[in-house]
Amino acid sequence: MKKNFKKVLVSLMAVGAIFCSGHAFxxxxxxxxxxxxxxxxxxxxxxxxxxxxxxxxxxxxxAINKEKSTIILNSDITITGNLNIPKGCLTIDLDGxxxxxxxxxxxxxxxxxxxxxxxxxVTHPGYSKTVVTYKDKYTTDAYGNQIYxxxxxxxxxxxxxxxxxxxxxxxxxxxxxxxxxxxxxxIIGMDGYNGKSITKxxxxxxxxxxxxxxxxxxxxxxxxxxxxxxxxxITTGNGGNGGNGYYSEECHIPLFGSGNGGNGGxxxxxxxxxxxxxxxxxxxxxxxxxxKGxKGxKGSEPNPNYWIYSGSKGKNGKKxxxxxxxxxxxxxxxx
Length: 335
Hints:
By secondary structure, the chain is mainly beta. 10% of the residues lie in helices and 36% in strands. It has three domains: 1-49, no CATH class; 53-120 and 169-332, no CATH class; 127-160, no CATH class. The protein has three helices and 17 strands. A hairpin with a 5-residue loop joins strand 9 and strand 10 (146-160). Mean pLDDT is 82; it is low at 1-43 and 331-335.
């Protein structure tokens, strides 16, 4: 009896609230009393349908492709390739979890563009030019026979008529109706790979110089649209160290000297947080920890087995620069 009375009472309270509010409700409201919970349907069901709870990278990209309006992480995830968000209005709620990059070249790519080639015509005027032609040369013997003696060069003036040529200017059309919010968690980038060191002799100096360290890609690549970052901790990766050089092979020719030392590779720059091409970026409550530049590799001493002349020592590689919060490339892009 008490249970039925509770159902009636809650139903009456709900009906009273609807009529006393003075507003018309476009969606249905259902009241459930089990466990004392109250839930709604209609608009809320639509919102639930447009919400995805994800556990890994594949599910995240699938939810984006299905144009879910809200994506909520159930756990930490690792991204190994670009996460592409080319269109739509989307909120990614990390819900206290972390997106970690498993590749230094991967980014969250937001927005899209397409190249447009616009033709134009260039007219080239006519002009004269001198060309060299070769003609057979003959002589006549005492009996009146022609004898071939070779060819001779003859300069001739020729007229090149005017002509037209079609060329193309390339412009970009940016997709502007993209709105993405990322909030409530952490984004951590991966360090760049170290450059390869050389460990054996090779003939040319360029072949014994260390490789440059890798610069990690920006974590968020804003091509176009509006991007809002809220309540996040963003940590970018460090640049890779440059590889060490080695010395080139001994050259036993006095005029050419001995084997030179290879240069050290340059350190990669620290990763930056955001790259923006045409996107508008706003942040609130975001902390940034930017990656440091990698160390430069060591230049090698010259080949110690020289004959007469010692080669030159290789130069040390330069240290990479620290990452920045935002790289703005908009002024470098054609419109």
